[in-house]
UniProtKB/TrEMBL annotation:
<dbReference type="InterPro" id="IPR011944">
    <property type="entry name" value="Steroid_delta5-4_isomerase"/>
</dbReference>
<dbReference type="InterPro" id="IPR032710">
    <property type="entry name" value="NTF2-like_dom_sf"/>
</dbReference>
<dbReference type="Pfam" id="PF14534">
    <property type="entry name" value="DUF4440"/>
</dbReference>
<feature type="domain" description="DUF4440">
    <location>
        <begin position="11"/>
        <end position="117"/>
    </location>
</feature>
<dbReference type="InterPro" id="IPR027843">
    <property type="entry name" value="DUF4440"/>
</dbReference>
<protein>
    <submittedName>
        <fullName>SnoaL-like domain protein</fullName>
    </submittedName>
</protein>
Length: 147
């Protein structure tokens, strides 16, 4: 049981490093949702657990998540946990090591009889020095209009 909002991120990181998608799903309310870095949107603990397990068994099998700046807004029976995470060890589709990257994870937590659980989460890739994405025929590209 997660007894305080500041215990949520360490629980998420433990589940990640244990390569346990079910433990990640168990951190969510029955109606909880998770939006990943590419906009995939999963609803419910099982639907959150399954793609995490797939990733943790494959391209994230050797990853490490290290937390950076973390902010917690305690709003009573609700809290927002936002953390910069540094990811290393990802494998590229061709099997080569990927470069490290950073994301910002945002969790909206609610106090339940089972402790603090996430009702919503969003993971956003950090693209240093860029302002937005620009859609082109060959996909999205991070751009900076200030240049």
């Amino acid at each position: 049981m997660i007894d305080a909002p500041d215990a949520f991120l360490p629980a998420f990181l433990r589940a990640w490093h244990a390569r346990d998608g079910s433990a990640i799903g168990a951190l969510f309310t029955p109606d909880g949702d998770f939006v990943n870095v590419t906009g995939l949107w999963w609803h419910g603990p099982d639907k959150i657990a399954a793609p995490h397990q797939y990733a943790l068994d494959s391209f994230f099998a050797e990853t490490t998540l290290r937390p950076g700046r973390t902010e917690i807004k305690d709003l009573g029976d609700t809290a927002i946990v936002r953390a910069r995470l540094h990811l290393t060890g990802q494998t590229a589709p061709d099997g080569t090591p990927a470069q490290p990257r950073q994301t910002i994870m945002t969790f909206v937590l609610i106090r339940t009889d089972a402790g603090w659980l996430a009702t919503s989460a969003q993971n956003t890739d950090v693209v240093p020095g860029q302002e937005t994405h620009l859609a082109r025929e060959n996909g999205l590209h991070a751009v900076d209009y200030r240049r």
